[in-house]
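User: Show me a protein chain along with its predicted structure.
Assistant: Here is one chain, sequence first, then structure tokens.
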Amino acid sequence: MQKMVNKLGYKKTKWGMIALVTILTIIFAASLTLAIIAYHNYNVYTTITM
């Protein structure tokens, strides 16, 4: 982290980390939503076919 601050500057490093965390949070939320939908659809399918 210190190498990034020395190379790019504090301001760019700070905003880069904020952007990285934001992008990873969006990806995590999207994959969690898709997993919940898939799990729900699987439970509905198994209930119908029993």
